Amino acid sequence: MFFDYREKIGRFITKNVKNIFSVDLEKVVVTSPPQVKFGEYSSTFPFQLAKILKRSPLQIGEEFVNGIDLSQSEISNFVIKVENIKGYVNFHLKRSIFFRELLNTLLADNKKISGPWDTSLKVIVEHTNINPNKAAHVGHLRNAILGDTLVRLLKKMGFNVEVQNYIDNTGVQVADIVVGLKYLKGMGVKEVKELSQMEKFDYFCWDLYTEVGKFYEKKKENLELRRNTLREIESGKGELYEISEMVSSSIVRCHLKTMKRLGIGYDLLPRESDILHLKFWERAFNLLREKRTIEYENEGENRGCWVFKYLNRGKEDTKIIVRSNGTVTYTGKDIAYQMWKFGKLGVDFYYKKFSTEDGFVWMTTSHKDEGEREHPTFGNGDIVFNVIDVRQGYTQNIVYEALKKLGYKREYENSVHFSYEMVALSPKCAVDLGFKLSEEDKGKNFVEVSGRKGLGVKADDLIDKLLERALEEVKNRDVKPDEMRDTAIKIAVGALRYYMLKYTKNSMIIFDMEDALSFEGETGPYLQYSVVRAKNILRKYMDEYQLDEEDLYDIFRKSVFSEISMEDDIWELLWEFIRLDEMVYNSYKKREISILAKGLFSISQKFSAFYSKYRILKRENKREREELLSFVYIFLKIMEFYLWILGIPIVDRM
RNA sequence: GCGCCUGUAGCUCAGCUGGAUAGAGCAACGGACUACGAAUCCGUAGGUCGCAGGUUCGAAUCCUGCCAGGCGUGCCA
Questions:
Q1: Which residue is nearest to nucleotide B58 (CA to C1')?
Q2: Which value does ipTM take for this structure?
């Protein structure tokens, strides 16, 4: 509902400029001034007109303001004043109307985000996608938290969202663990089965993975074991395959458990092995060949390969899709999978329930008899978001280009690589973790996380540390003993999620333990604390005046807004509440979650300032007290609504 | 070589479609609690927005060139 104000003002300007100056403005830009004292909307059209009319912007602004008739316009119901300051034409809104409307919406528990997008569309978001061969680390956390927040954002915008977490259970990474278990540890199916039941099997594999890395380095022939293992896993039969199944399912359970701690869940786990066995690739290959999207090379350096040729900024680029030995590359499989997501492959998976600690999640399967007869419809998306780090940009682009060349223009346009920069460690952090760095690495300002070297901060370790620190803090504060643990968990989650969301996606996060474990300043707990303060005010007020919630709502329904609540600093905050929907839309449009995260932090900051400036309970004037109280209520409700999107839990006391 | 990204305060980062005085957090310094609990607030200090041109009434923002850094760019998986 707040989206059209800007447009209405734009139309108002165009119309009146034509009346007054007989000039057609091509494009009117309506911006928001830096401070509310300049109004809520502003336009600089007098600067554009100055040249044409050969007069100063100031004069033009004056003439415009004098020439309009506000009361007869379509903006008169929400604009109270139009003024000209130095050539900036500023529009002031009727503050109390917005106050009332927002409060009523919140009291009716009817807050929704609506705007110029089509909510009948189905959106598929793919995120997390961790190789199921070892524990998750901080880099994976950025992906999962970013992806999950995107999902929450889309859901609040009204889209039908499906969350997929792709499991690459037939890749080298899993094969390496199988090699380790079989040839380094000398284990068979039975032993692995027992071992994979252990707590923190993912931690065990983390260490084993680096051992296997050294094992390969020691003797090149050992790599032969990997090749054979990989082949057997892909075949779907035999001892090594069985071991790989146990490894990947057990590790997937570990990952799901880790993500669950952060409030992250999934609708479907599509598996690479099923894409393989259900011959998704063959199907895609036929389509690609029929439509001549890929071609066979008879000569040259790529002789014997099927390649995809496309124009990349005017230059022809060639990417091998099928190798000369007949095997398909990752890009090829990705094309097939992306086609399936859009419902363009003409084949589907079977679906089974994959048990987790507290229920199940849907997983694909290749076997008809294993699949459930009844299951939700998966795939068939209209828009697909792939949350993958920036390094995959080239490959992602080829996948989308292939869709375009296949004739799926809409699908091409609706394929989004939701990319983000990687998480690296500061050299100091790496040393603190016990890694020996080379002199060269010490001189750099970051060290790349490497699963193969075991260099990285494990996700669960980080969450545990945050939890520990939160517990220490909580013990010294106003929290009941039986709520301490729950509160500490919420704080830990809030801190971690905000930490991962506050950076723009193009910014590399150089992980620093001190910053990540901080609960002060620009952190999740700061946001949570501001909400706790709002709750405390309302609670104390109810205690002091012997009111229940209904009494309180009654007060809010009746409260009137006068001078106090229209003070600039209060209004500025309220205006920011109102503009949050626009911010959500911007986050979506620009694919930049940090816009919303930063916005909520800014609101929390302003509320904290408000909190220390206006003492509400001690205020003598009842009417003013109630006005301010209703404002606190609005803040609380707004924060509950939008913090949900960031996945930052609300805390009662801290 | 080509492509993408980055360069803003001592450090880590924001800065929307070009617009009004370039903002936060951390660190430093100085203040504010017998309390709507200080995980906070207020204040001070700190900036040739990598460099040089250009476009514009107006540039951190757009264009060009240069410098510095990062990441891609395999018939690997």
A1: A47
A2: 0.97
